[in-house]
Hints:
It is built from 8 helices and 10 strands. The chain has 2 domains: 2-62, no CATH class; 74-232, Aminopeptidase (3-Layer(aba) Sandwich), CATH 3.40.630.30. By secondary structure, the chain is an alpha+beta fold. Strand 7 and strand 8 (170-178) form a beta hairpin. The chain is globular.
Amino acid sequence: MDLQLSPLDQQRFGPVTAKATLADSDSAAAVQAWCRAQAVQLLIARLPTSAIALTQALEAGGARLADTLVYYTRKALAASAPDLPAGYRWRLATAADADAVAALAGLTFAGYAGHYHADARLDRAAADAVYADWAANSCRSAAVADAVILLEAADGIAAFATLKDRGQHVFEGVLFGVHPQHQGRGLYHCLMQLSQHWAAAGGFTQMLVSTQVTNLSVQKVWCRLGFEPSASYYTFHQWFD
Length: 241
């Protein structure tokens, strides 16, 4: 069990917040008792969907489902760089791109159906800002992302992908965004291929991606690119009033 306070979430939203990554064998009662002892107001807990008994215990203790994540894995990377549509080029971001990438993330993730947005007690503008801050910090800090791929057009950054080393030659495509004015041109598909191209050159052998179970459009892209379902997780929110 990984359970700790989250000062960043408290700064963003106000209430004292704890985050937990749970396994089948963990105790919902122990988690909730720890939260009460630490004067936690909001618990955000993630656990495998296979942990049915733990899921039911969390629900019985007052936790509410906020989202369901599905993970897909590709075990053989496509090393070749794709042919980009005319007028686009790609490069890796630097810290100087942070503000521009944050602005694009803020646009593409506005109202995104993540677990923060699913909680009616959390400010929606602050929930939108989570993704903008995450994207900006991905450009600034190797602790957040190992690379950020940009697709550029004449009018600026058209799309981005943030990539993170997960160890054992596996990397994750974490955040992807395509500007609304550049959608419908296959740029997301290009980002997926460019991510694999970057990773193969760095010695990675597998790619991991995740999304909400309801986001069928990107899952269809992943299946066409040779990805397979590999894991799924629930995210619960519990308020202690």
